């Protein structure tokens, strides 16, 4: 054991700090926003002030969703002041949702001048290419480098508590590879909610699950123009300390497409507030159903007339992707 290892105090794992990193923190662009928002009350209750969510700064939505605060610990203040001195713009505050978690949002545009330098560095350290015209990947690289920059400086100031960094989806994945390469003293978790290549394969007319073992993943990603994104996702998968998915079928998918078997499955959960009075629920249900009936009458009557009292309505809350979300299977099963 070296002298440094002997003298360096161990971090307190019982009062660990948790950073949850995702592109959709206070930034509603897809389904992960709902996942984060619905789990925040439980996580905030368990971790309290030791929990902070990190995302990109959207000047369109952040002013409506976040209450601005001053950094509330010396370690955080020193880290953010250092980054601000070097041109990084950010917003720190509380997300105005149930649980009121602290959020740190970075303005990727404030470091756009570093994009080419960071893309070159990513190629040199990880062999990950990045075409110039993919705006989404460029944003993911800027965001990943900002997160790694923050974590690297923060752990230098915060020496007592263990630090957990939980990353969601490939858009946050660059930060994981950088944490591993730079040997930043944080424990990293990567959660994929659906593999990137799996989404593209399912959207096409491919017998996906029966052929899952046989795909040449590099070739398939290349044919679809997402090889560089796939490389980011796969690097995050292999560089994280703990790899998780949200379902067993996604775990099976990840094992074959990302070449790592997940360490665990963390199902998505929504906190549904139950009605305390059954009559209140029944009244709302009746009012809502009458409104649906009115719409159907106006939309279909004269062309299609049917008995509304003998009609069942089905809804989906997923994206409008006929095959990818399984609507084709559902319609077929109705017969």
Automatic annotation (TrEMBL):
<dbReference type="GO" id="GO:0005737">
    <property type="term" value="C:cytoplasm"/>
</dbReference>
<comment type="similarity">
    <text>Belongs to the glycosyltransferase 3 family.</text>
</comment>
<keyword id="KW-0320">Glycogen biosynthesis</keyword>
<keyword id="KW-0328">Glycosyltransferase</keyword>
<dbReference type="Pfam" id="PF05693">
    <property type="entry name" value="Glycogen_syn"/>
</dbReference>
<comment type="function">
    <text>Glycogen synthase participates in the glycogen biosynthetic process along with glycogenin and glycogen branching enzyme. Extends the primer composed of a few glucose units formed by glycogenin by adding new glucose units to it. In this context, glycogen synthase transfers the glycosyl residue from UDP-Glc to the non-reducing end of alpha-1,4-glucan.</text>
</comment>
<dbReference type="InterPro" id="IPR008631">
    <property type="entry name" value="Glycogen_synth"/>
</dbReference>
<protein>
    <recommendedName>
        <fullName>Glycogen [starch] synthase</fullName>
        <ecNumber>2.4.1.11</ecNumber>
    </recommendedName>
</protein>
<comment type="function">
    <text>Transfers the glycosyl residue from UDP-Glc to the non-reducing end of alpha-1,4-glucan.</text>
</comment>
<dbReference type="GO" id="GO:0004373">
    <property type="term" value="F:alpha-1,4-glucan glucosyltransferase (UDP-glucose donor) activity"/>
</dbReference>
<keyword id="KW-0808">Transferase</keyword>
<dbReference type="GO" id="GO:0005978">
    <property type="term" value="P:glycogen biosynthetic process"/>
</dbReference>
<comment type="pathway">
    <text>Glycan biosynthesis; glycogen biosynthesis.</text>
</comment>
């Amino acid at each position: 054991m070296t002298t440094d290892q002997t003298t360096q105090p161990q971090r307190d794992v019982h009062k660990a700090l948790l950073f949850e990193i995702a592109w959709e923190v206070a930034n509603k662009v897809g389904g992960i926003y709902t996942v984060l928002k619905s789990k925040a009350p439980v996580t905030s209750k368990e971790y309290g002030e030791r929990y902070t969510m990190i995302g990109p700064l959207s000047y369109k939505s952040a002013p409506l969703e976040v209450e601005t605060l001053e950094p509330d610990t010396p370690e955080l203040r020193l880290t953010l002041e250092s980054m601000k001195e070097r041109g990084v713009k950010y917003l720190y505050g509380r997300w105005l949702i149930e649980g009121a978690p602290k959020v740190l949002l970075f303005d990727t545009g404030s470091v756009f001048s570093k994009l080419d330098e960071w893309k070159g560095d990513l190629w040199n350290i990880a062999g990950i290419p990045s075409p110039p015209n993919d705006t989404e990947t460029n944003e993911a690289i800027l965001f990943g480098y900002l997160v790694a920059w923050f974590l690297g400086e923060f752990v230098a100031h915060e020496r007592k508590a263990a630090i957990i960094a939980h990353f969601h989806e490939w858009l946050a994945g660059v930060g994981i590879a950088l944490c591993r390469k730079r040997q930043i003293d944080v424990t990293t978790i990567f959660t994929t909610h659906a593999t990137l290549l799996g989404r593209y394969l399912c959207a096409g007319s491919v017998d996906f699950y029966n052929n899952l073992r046989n795909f040449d993943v590099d070739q398939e990603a290349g044919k679809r123009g997402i090889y560089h994104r796939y490389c980011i996702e796969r690097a995050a998968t292999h560089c994280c300390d703990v790899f998780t998915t949200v379902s067993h079928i996604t775990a099976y998918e990840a094992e074959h497409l990302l070449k790592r078997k997940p360490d665990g499955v963390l199902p998505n959960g929504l906190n549904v507030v139950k009605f305390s009075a059954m009559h209140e629920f029944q009244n709302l249900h009746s009012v809502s159903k009458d409104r649906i009936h009115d719409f159907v009458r106006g939309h279909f009557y004269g062309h299609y007339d049917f008995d509304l009292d003998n009609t069942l309505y089905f809804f989906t809350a997923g994206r409008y992707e006929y095959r990818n979300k399984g609507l084709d299977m559902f319609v077929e099963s109705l017969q």
